[in-house]
């Protein structure tokens, strides 16, 4: 089974790094954003996409570019499952994966204890398994699985 781990830079990627025991047991690769910092090597292969900000003027153009980059990575790697902690970069490859009948697992950030995130609202409709780390979030995501703090 080939796994695709997806996370934006910062806290989302740090949370994903906590899954290193799972990562090392599978043929896996990482999809993340380009940044100026050297991050830990999580997977044997890493693909970088451009960092986008929802508030920037050219957001739509950058978002379309993200879809194209995600499709390229999906076609090249053909993952069986996507595991993601967010944020926005996870949405295109997750939707593409669902079109090709692949599994998607979304883990809502442990920083979200009381309110739903924008990425969570989008991914709730896409994910086959939606995991929350706060039981308060079950009011927003009734079909989610509450696992407590997993990071």
Shape designation:
globular
Largest sheet: 7 strands, parallel
Could you say what the CATH architecture is?
Answer: 3-Layer(aba) Sandwich
**CATH homologous superfamily label:** Glycogen Phosphorylase B
How many helices? 5
And the CATH topology? Rossmann fold
Q: Can you tell me the residue ranges where pLDDT is under 50 for at least 5 consecutive residues?
A: none
How does the helix and strand content classify structurally? alpha/beta
Strand arrangement within the widest β-sheet reads 3-2-1-4-5-6-7
Strand content: 15-25%
At the first level of CATH, what is the class? Alpha Beta
Report the C-alpha radius of gyration, rounded: 15 Å
Alpha-carbon distance between the two ends? 23 Å
Structural domain tally: 1
- Helix-strand pattern, N to C? EHHEEHEHEHEE
Query: How many runs of DSSP E, i.e. beta strands?
Result: 7
